[in-house]
Amino acid sequence: MEEKVHTIFVCSDSVGETANTVVQATIRQFNTSQISVKRFGSMRSEEDIRKMMEEASRIGSFVVYTLVLPELREMMRQESIRLNVISIDILGPVMQAFMDTYKDSPKKKAGLLHQMDEEYYKRVEAVEFAVKCDDGKDTSALKQAHIVLLGVSRTSKTPLSIFLAHKGYKVANYPLVPEVKPPTSLFTLNKSKLVGLTMSADQLVKIRTERLKAVGLPFGAKYSALERVVEELEYAYGLYKQLGCMVIDVTEKAIEETAGIILDAM
Question: Which end of the chain is more exposed for a tag (fewer CB within 10 A), N or C?
Fold first, then answer.
């Protein structure tokens, strides 16, 4: 018998990214794959709330929401009681805690997290920098980087660079190959901005083998051979020791986890 698909509603007076992130993290804690998320963005009126809650009641959903205006949060609370629909306020309790602790009042303006302010343009500039300096394309810009990622092929340098760039950090990454001498400028950088990425040889072999399949290259190429992988990892580790940089084993680590380690160290 086919499992029923369940739908979770995400509601926001902006784009709903914050509530969606919480919901996605929750879904991962359950084995079921029959879950969908329906997002309702730019909810700015009580009528919008009423229609959405009635739909949630009709299909048996619950609602996760981020609403800035207290009158909309109150409307959500009332409709939740009226229709017997569970609703979870992500933003409200944190805002209240801020008000109670610091005796301050919120701006009550939706979408501030995504507004095109100085921080927004800083992130755009950082992403452009990461693209420009990806895979060692522009070693002359290493001095301008906040973070320089080093690692052999397929140790997640590029996705990690982009993730950190979205946080506003200028990130360059450089691929390590035993036959290619690294740029001399690498040795003049402050070691606090250098991060060496490593991975278990077995895991790296699996990833490289899958990469070969994806691009249509034959299995068994030197690129994915265990002996070659071990050689590259040993070379990289020797260079990290020489540079005196932080080393992170990214085996089985999510990009977010690795980024968190780097930012905590900074």
Answer: N
Q: CB–CB of 17/64 below 8 Å?
A: no
Give CA–CA dist 29/26, Å, rounded: 5
Yes or no: say if 24 and 31 are a contact pair by the CB < 8 Å rule.
no
Phi–psi pair at 217, nearest 5 degrees: -95, 155
- Separation CA 98–CA 105 (nearest Å): 8
Give the model confidence (pLDDT) of 121-162 as tens digits.
898 999 999 999 999 999 999 999 999 999 999 999 999 999
17 CB-near residues (< 8 Å, 6+ apart):
113, 114
| Residue whose structure tokens are 């760039």 | 165
Tokens of 213: 């399949």
Separation of alpha carbons 226 and 232, rounded Å = 10
Q: How far apart are CA 34 and CA 191, in angstroms?
A: 47
pTM above 0.85, yes or no: no
Residue given tokens 């209240």 in the structure block: 96
Residue carrying structure tokens 């302010």? 117
